[in-house]
Design a protein that fits this description.
The protein has seven helices and six strands; from the N terminus they run E-H-H-E-H-E-H-E-H-E-E-H-H. Strands 2-1-3-6-5-4 form a six-stranded mixed β-sheet, sandwiched between helices.
């Protein structure tokens, strides 16, 4: 069974067609290589919290997505509000994903310290924020990818033991 996934790119310029989205396609391509996921929807929204929250809420509340990956809006810029918008819609935080991404990213660049990415659960959907850089987004996806199928099975109600 393929895990239904959506990708939300958060970019003022991207939403206006002034900048090509490279991060969303980078995430989609890597998920396709993993063969456990199917990207069924992709959108680009501006760095407006209400737009971000609306997209996340609509996807989660539809019950049709197991996973939502966001890209962009996780840094220190005044318009980087993806973490706040994400936390406003989740029911439960899932901090291990962002912690693991930052830990591994620090091995590559000290700029990983300025990532404010978060992850959380709304209903039966896991939401994870990724950086806006295609390279960083792909590197961070590599970090969490091994844990995603098991995490999503548990979220869907799999009662089996966690095991190793």
């Amino acid at each position: 069974m393929l895990l239904r996934t959506a990708i939300l790119t958060i970019s003022d310029r991207g939403s206006k067609g002034e900048r090509q989205d490279l991060s969303g396609p980078a995430l989609r391509e890597r998920l396709g290589e993993a063969e456990a996921f199917i990207v069924v929807d992709e959108r680009i929204v501006s760095d407006e919290p209400d737009e971000i929250k609306a997209a996340l809420t609509n996807w989660c509340d539809s019950g049709s997505m197991a996973l939502i990956l966001t890209t962009g809006g996780t840094g220190f810029s005044p318009r980087d509000l993806a973490p706040e918008a994400t936390m406003a819609v989740v029911d439960r935080p899932a901090p291990g994903f962002a912690e693991a991404m930052r830990l591994e990213s620090l091995k590559i660049t000290p700029h990983a310290m300025i990532s404010r990415a978060v992850a959380g659960i709304r209903g039966s959907t896991l939401i994870i924020n990724f950086p806006g850089s295609p390279k960083a987004a792909r590197e961070c996806l590599e970090v969490v990818l091994p844990a995603l199928p098991h995490a999503l099975e548990k979220l869907a109600g799999d009662p089996s033991d966690c095991g190793s």
